[in-house]
Amino acid sequence: MTNELLAIAGDSAAEIADSVRSLIDRGILEPGSPLPPVRALAETIGVNRNTVVAAYRQLAAAGAVETAGRAGTRVAGRSDLAEEGFSADTVLRDVGTGNPDASRIPELGPALATLAGRPVLYGEPTIDPALERWARDWIEADLPHRDDVRLTITGGAVDALERLFTGALTRDDPIGLEDPCFLSAQRTVRAGGYRPVAIPVDDEGMTVEGLRAALDAGVRAIVCTPRAQNPTGVSLSERRAMALRDVLAPHPYVLVIEDDHFSMLSSSPFHSIVGAGHRRWALIRSVSKFLGPDMCLAVTASDPETADRLAQRLSPGSTWVSHLLQRLVVSLVSDPAVTAHIADTARHYRARNTAFAETLTSLGIATTAGDGLSVWVPVPGPGRAVAEQLMRRGWLARPGEEFVLRDDTAAAHLRLTVHDLSDDDAERLAADVVAAARSLAPTKKVMTRP
């Protein structure tokens, strides 16, 4: 420990963090290696104790170290955070993908045939005029209290999040995230070196108490999913949205980002937590859930200042979103046959998820199908242990532990993507979930609350 302690240097938190990362990069500090206690390091290099605390916090936010309370701080292992998508290297039936049904993504052929036109050159507007007209109608109907809406096009919702963070925050800034939380949001926050602050979610969405606590903790931005929250599937009630607006009212300069990822497929009404007087806000709607993940395009509506900061990171001809892609999206969403197909797909997801939840409930695991592509299934005990039992039965499932920011009861869940299963396979999976849960708690009732 002495050599490592003496090798760490710096007068500021950023310099100390960089020094530790250099030791990690050179292999001097290996995964699992303990870092010096805060007090000892502060005395050795001659800085305030709070400076070392801030350095360790930066390292933890970046995923370089892990803190364990009185057990100290250690260099993190090299395992990556979980990602969305199917697992290509498995013989198991993958029910943890979070993917839309590939057979229900609209055909692109007819729309592609309409895209011929003049080339788009450097210096032209980043938003195709036809897409802007459609997007404005799509979004402004849900923002009747705003007269300052500006639109920006990005390469998907995660791209929008990253650009919004970069334009408004600095390293180690705290960001309020729902808990449990969408995997991509977790990755974006940690990769940017920001500090996630957990805001619990219940059956009406982000909790009032959790938001109030996050604001008291000094968060500079908040990410809220108004509909089909991933992984829980809950949507904000009108009552909850109103209460959250009241809590936010004294904090008009906190950046509030609403990620309405399910938009056209959602069965729930849109309720915003952004009040009429809020100064910094953004509403993101991507097309990937209803037009396919490869359609990397999102529309972001925001206040003028936030839009200007977004635009600074979107250079015409280099980092803009392809106008061919923009025109393809307009062609698809303007086709009545495509929009009817999207509506039918939304009904399909709701029906399949509801049927699966009802089957589980009839077998003893009380489950409610929320909105979205997956079902959030409560299980007695750690979700990871139940998922391991399911692997022995031929299934690859997502344990709740992958989504939580804090160690709490939300981990006692599985997130299952079941909309593409046949009736027989869905019934078999439900039976296997119950059997896996019972094998871990043979003396307890399996029935739990969602």
TrEMBL record:
One of its GO terms (molecular function) is pyridoxal phosphate binding. This is DNA-binding transcriptional MocR family regulator. InterPro entries: Aminotransferase_I/II_large, HTH_trans_reg/aminotransferase, PyrdxlP-dep_Trfase, PyrdxlP-dep_Trfase_major, Tscrpt_reg_HTH_GntR, WH-like_DNA-bd_sf, WH_DNA-bd_sf. The keyword Metal-binding does not apply. Residues 10-78 form the HTH gntR-type domain. PROSITE patterns: HTH_GNTR. The keyword Acetylation does not apply. Pfam families: Aminotran_1_2 (PF00155), GntR (PF00392). Keywords: DNA-binding, Pyridoxal phosphate, Transcription, Transcription regulation. In the C-terminal section; belongs to the class-I pyridoxal-phosphate-dependent aminotransferase family. Signal peptide: none annotated.
